[in-house]
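Below is a filled-in request sheet from our internal design queue. Each sheet records the structural input a requester submitted and the sequence that came back. We keep these sheets so that new team members can see what a complete request looks like end to end.

REQUESTER: design group, bay 2
PRIORITY: normal
MODE: inverse folding
CHAIN LENGTH: 407
BACKBONE (tokenized):
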């Protein structure tokens, strides 16, 4: 069977692959500290669970939903985004709409499918979420990565982003708070980005905000369109329930965009997946979104505590070059490039080749700590860890990581 070049060029999800390996080793009896997971290991809100349960009494909750999602829910989500971001979606003089898809990842792939042509370029900021370049390449476009380092707290300068713009640039993806670094771009960065991108009116901006409410240090995330509302006429905002309601498996995400683009995405979605999960949509229609902040408070405290454990461990081990302050989402990107262990994997002292895959394999084999190699995020010689384990297992995992780093 001859497979298409389109699908053979797609890389396997490294995150899911490493998580599967860690689970398999744990099931075989080996003590494993799985720091790969991109999900919260907490039970969702009881009120939310009860609403889903109550919807099972109605036949309509098991039938096709409208392709773009239930109108009542879409209207509710528009009110929610305007209130939570303190914006008016009509401020740019265009009519905005909302489409509900099978998770935020589906929303992103739909957006790129509706916007991007062959040979277009899409700018992404490195370290980036591992699926961005693969989605872009699937659309026969070219991902253009703008890199940053731990010395910049993994926040690329706006001036470097502008240098990456060419006549072929169709869109820029902003992910704040970010996966894999657990940081978000500050207000001044967003103001500067907005000022810069106004010079390029033909470029669309995709703002991936799936971790917006998972900020555990002030100041909280802000966005370029809050300071430059005229940019809303070419901005697409992506969000969903996966992270904020610990519901990665229920696959409900949404996008806000000018109505013309939402109509195009609706046509695409209608011919591929149809409408998203009707049962969960019906439950969300009656769900009070104001409960989410209350639900997340103990979770955010847990993330702050684990971030502190990590900071203290690096300091006590004399490895401060590995540390920066994570402030949001639930990840941290460990930079191995200046650590003693890197020499064990480098072919020569001056080599800058990426060895993150070999590092993570050895870490899992010798210490039972599973992390995701940084090459998947465009960040060589790093590895992503999740901060979600319970405090004592997390501390043990960090102690083993430090032991490995010190070689």
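RETURNED SEQUENCE:
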């Amino acid at each position: 069977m001859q497979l298409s070049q389109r699908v053979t060029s797609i890389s396997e999800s490294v995150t899911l692959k490493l998580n599967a390996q860690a689970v398999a080793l744990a099931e075989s009896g080996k003590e494993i500290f799985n720091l790969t997971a991109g999900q919260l290991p907490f039970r969702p809100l009881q009120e939310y669970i009860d609403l889903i349960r109550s919807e099972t009494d109605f036949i309509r909750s098991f039938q096709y939903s409208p392709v773009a999602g239930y109108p009542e829910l879409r209207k509710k989500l528009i009110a929610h985004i305007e209130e939570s971001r303190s914006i008016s979606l009509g401020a740019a003089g265009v009519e905005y709409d909302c489409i509900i898809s099978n998770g935020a990842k589906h929303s992103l792939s739909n957006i790129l499918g509706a916007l991007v042509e062959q040979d277009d370029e899409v700018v992404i900021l490195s370290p980036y979420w591992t699926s961005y370049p693969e989605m872009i390449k699937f659309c026969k476009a070219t991902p253009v990565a703008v890199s940053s380092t731990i010395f910049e707290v993994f926040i690329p300068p706006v001036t470097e982003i502008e240098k990456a713009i060419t006549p072929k640039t169709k869109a820029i993806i902003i992910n704040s708070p970010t996966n894999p670094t657990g940081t978000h771009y500050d207000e001044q960065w967003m103001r500067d980005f907005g000022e810069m991108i106004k010079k390029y009116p033909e470029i669309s901006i995709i703002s991936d905000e799936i971790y917006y409410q998972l900020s555990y240090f002030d100041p909280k995330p802000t966005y370029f369109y809050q300071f430059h509302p005229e940019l809303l006429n070419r901005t697409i905002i992506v969000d969903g329930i996966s992270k904020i309601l610990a519901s990665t498996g229920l696959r409900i995400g949404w996008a806000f965009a000018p109505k013309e683009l939402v109509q195009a995405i609706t046509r695409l979605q209608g011919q591929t997946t149809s409408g998203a999960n009707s049962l969960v949509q019906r439950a969300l229609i009656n769900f009070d979104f104001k409960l989410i902040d209350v639900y997340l408070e103990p979770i955010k405290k847990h993330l702050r505590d684990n971030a502190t454990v990590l900071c203290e461990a690096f300091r006590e081990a004399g490895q401060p070059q590995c540390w920066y302050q994570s402030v949001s989402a639930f990840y941290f990107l460990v930079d191995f490039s200046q650590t003693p262990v890197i020499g064990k994997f480098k072919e020569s002292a001056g080599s800058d080749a990426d060895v993150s895959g070999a590092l993570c394999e050895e870490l899992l084999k010798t210490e039972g700590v599973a992390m995701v190699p940084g090459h998947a995020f465009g960040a060589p010689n790093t590895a992503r860890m999740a901060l979600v384990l319970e405090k004592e297992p997390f501390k043990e995992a960090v102690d083993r990581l430090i032991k490995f780093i010190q070689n």
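SHEET NOTES:
- The chain has a mean pLDDT of 94.
- The chain is about 40% helix and 15% strand.
FILED BY: M.R.
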